[in-house]
Amino acid sequence: MSELLLGRVADDVVAALETGLPPAGRDSRLYEDLGFDSLMLIELVGRLQERRPALGELPLPDMVGGLGDIGSLTELLRAAADGPPAPPTAPAPGVRTEGTVA
Question: What is the domain-level CATH number for residue 30?
Answer without folding.
Answer: 1.10.1200
